[in-house]
User: What shape does this take?
Amino acid sequence: MIKIAVLSNSPGSANTILPIVNLLNERLTIHFDLFLCPVSKKKIPKINNSTLFSISEVYIASFDYDLIVTGTSYPPTTEIFTWKKAKRFSVPTIAMIDQWLNYLERFEVSNQQLVEESLPDLITTIDNFGKSEMKALGFPGVKILSVGSPYLDTIPNANSANKALNKKNKLEILFVSEPRSLENELNHGYDEFSILEHFIIAINEQPHSIDFNIKIKPHPRNSKESFKNFIQKHNNQNISIEDKLSPRESISNSDIVIGMSSMMLVESVLMGKPTMSIQIGLNGIDPFILSRMKVMNTALSRDEILLNLNLILEGFSVKWEKPKNNIESLYSWITSKLNTN
Assistant: This one.
């Protein structure tokens, strides 16, 4: 029986890996060893012919596999260990990237150069835009394949253009957090708290007499306690934590979705929700993909927050097509390595 190891150390990795695991499970007879972090265990359901392990148990695994499929996370310590050890055992490896940012930070870099012996055999990106960005960075000896995003494919197309919101008495605003405060070494120039602070100040200065509720959607790596402290500091504002609904339910229940560069902002645009990326203090290249694609503009000041907010209130909408699904090309690459049909 074919034996494949799957490693997921983040929620984005789980979303990206699951479709190809399901496809392989449908078409081939395979045993899966699943090395999953706690959040990934919630996102990846029980799979037939599989054994579940904690993410740390990969360090003592035997590596008698026909293939290893991993996601990418930060810091990439566990993935780098896995790719290196797989090379020693001549096991082919795939690393699936779930976003259009921090390409180099997902792999081992020494003296500002990628370490070739620790890279996987195949890296998948969501689309050709991401593929071209990665190729420009180097990635020696690695095949890069754009496979689309089966996860984004599950989002139904938005039915209509956004309606003007300036007639509503109260707006439900969803703030999508990312754990920037835990990534100081990446020098983003801002964190989730400074961005939310800027937005609160800006929205209180807006000329429309609109009331609002802000729901904070914490990232799994965020501490809820830190947001509770933030809310207590702003106890005269209508701010609360949303941790009961799924990401898409949270988006659906909102009038406006704001954040930094989260994949949830991409989902929000595809769901037809007014969406804003705010990155006041940005240091370096804009990590938000729809800004780099020139689909929409990131707000880099409070004035730009107000400008974007006014456009949203008047019904301005952003349109963007989903990346083309090319998962069959990934399946073909895998079967060529497995020597099976």
Observations:
- The longest helix spans residues 11-27.
- The chain has two domains: 2-153+324-338, 170-313.
- The two ends are 14 Å apart (CA to CA).
- The first strand starts at residue 2 and ends at 8.
